[in-house]
What we know:
The protein contains 22 helices and 18 strands. The longest helix has 23 residues, at 353-375. The protein is of the alpha/beta class.
Amino acid sequence: MTHTVHHPADVQATFCAVLVDALVTRGLRHAVISPGSRSTPMALALTQRPEVGVQVAHDERTAAFLALGVGVATGRPALALCTSGTATLHFHAAVVEAHLSSVPLIVITADRPPELRDVGAAQTIDQQRLFGTALRWFHDPGVADPAAVSSWRSLGERVVAAATGARPGPVQVNLPFREPLVGAVDPTLYQRAGGRTPATARSRPVVGDAELSELAEVLAGEVRGIIVAGRSGAAPDAVGALASALGWPVLVEPRSGCGGLASAIRAFDALLREQAFAVDHTPRVVLRLGDPLASKVTNQWLAASDATQIHLSAVPAVSDPDHRIARRVVADMDDTLRRWTALVAGRGASATPWLSRWLHAERHAQAAFDVWCAEQTTLNEPATARVLMAALPSGSNVVVASSMPVRDVEWFGGTCAHVTVHSNRGANGIDGVVATALGVAWATAAPTAVLLGDVALLHDSSSLTALARRRLDVRIVVVDNDGGGIFSFLPQATTLAEDRFELLFGTPHGTDLVRLAEAHGLPARTVTTADELATAVAVPGPLLIRVPSDRAANVAAHDQANQAARPR
């Protein structure tokens, strides 16, 4: 028997072509590649497929967060590819965020072959299970071997299945390649890899009738109830219908998309800072949807309420830091909400003053915020969030940094119903904010604003590299208080000597952010008034808009805004 001899470089090229074909068949449409030699076979296979849009990111952390942004915006995994060595480590933060936020993501790390490991070869580290328990699946198939050709396609299919399963998340495939790295696809091997398998949709869990009816009794049996709507993927009309049937207010954070509901309460943080209001409006039943709120005041109020808390989520991820959840329901969000609405119809508390009192306080607070913002002669951080959200064109995306920006948008951003808000709140890190926005803008082809602080921008400044050439409408609004502004709200600010506080927490950097943007070829300007910000943000990106701020004055501004909104 004669055996066909295949050139190793051609085997690797064919393996990558089959793997990419399987990924494309399963829906891959976006790939982000960081430059490197060892990843050449996979990079060539990706760029040979017209179905796959490709972005090149010079920094691997940017690449991974850019791919994450695609998953955040679409719910489908993008692929991030890098070379071997320490390049792979820069994927880690985005992998952890994808894990904790249940965002699908495929990372492919090129590697040296086994004979170059543990012998001091350059650019070689241990890449096996590099990201630990944050992965939904890890696999290293070894150097491509024609004897394993029948497994190549199924590998790609399993990668997508693992990334988009019951709890979506990150998958790592570690691919060792031998030199030479450039080969040609072998038609015989490609055919032997097998035909395509049709993509299958992820099944959505459905709650049983008995459990659904039991919980409907709990909901309908209580007048003093609230719905807390975090990021959940639930359709706002499904949330609104249940809230209307129950006669309950909905405490909404911007990522929920529920800010336009008739029963929406957006100023909850300011309202609950008033002790009398917080006590008088303590709920007995709370239905939590998806992720928790950013407001510490509200989360502590919920934890202290002793209310029966029910958590509904589409993914089997625990979200109970206060250990107060009585029942966890993992099921299709819209199906469950609509079935509950049918079961409680006509039995809710709409005729009681419970909801009307909440809505009266909400209307007063929003009007007070508007008056207060109009009285500010120069922009401050709460006003920046409110003006930005109102000024953006309908259909825009907004990516908000963790730290103060996500809180300012939650507390002062207003309705937000005309935009889609995203924020990396799984790990609550400030890394990769600009890169995430690039992914969102790329996947949606819609105007995308970024609201972040100066430290977050500096942390992700590598994402400005080549941004001017990406043809993405990204409008970066950076609040510049020359340091870590959120720390000024913490006890450290008043208990430490000023010089020590500045050294450890204030951390002034002195960077000229406008010149930083201009060094990357980006239009940039500083604005100080609401009109200037509204005018600047109306211009398509890429561009950077700097809003100067003072850390101490910012604390006072928050206090003033909250005082203005106190319940009357």
